[in-house]
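Thread: Thioredoxin, structure

OP (GT): Posting the sequence first so everyone is looking at the same thing. Length is 85 residues per the record. Can we get the structure tokens written out before standup tomorrow? I want them in the notebook alongside the other entries.
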Amino acid sequence: MLVDFYADWCGPCQMLEPVVETIAEDTEAAVAKVDVDANQQLAAEYGVRGVPTMMLFADGEPVERLVGMQDESKLRTLVSSHTGA
């Protein structure tokens, strides 16, 4: 599962949104979006201090964390390395 911690006021988050949507459509990974303003406790639980933060979970455990704007190829490589897709 790829989790996108974002905020509505975050410019890089808005630029990353179409990339995240494409990955959700084109890969086996489930994608979840978490608004850090509406879910402050969850963001704190995972140590999210900046947005966008992308976390990849495998078997229910966090295995990768990327902070800041990411390009699509890097995210695809990350997801495929943990899904076998």
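GT: Both are above now. Quick notes for whoever picks this up: The chain has a mean pLDDT of 92. Residues 41 and 47 are 10 Å apart (CA to CA).
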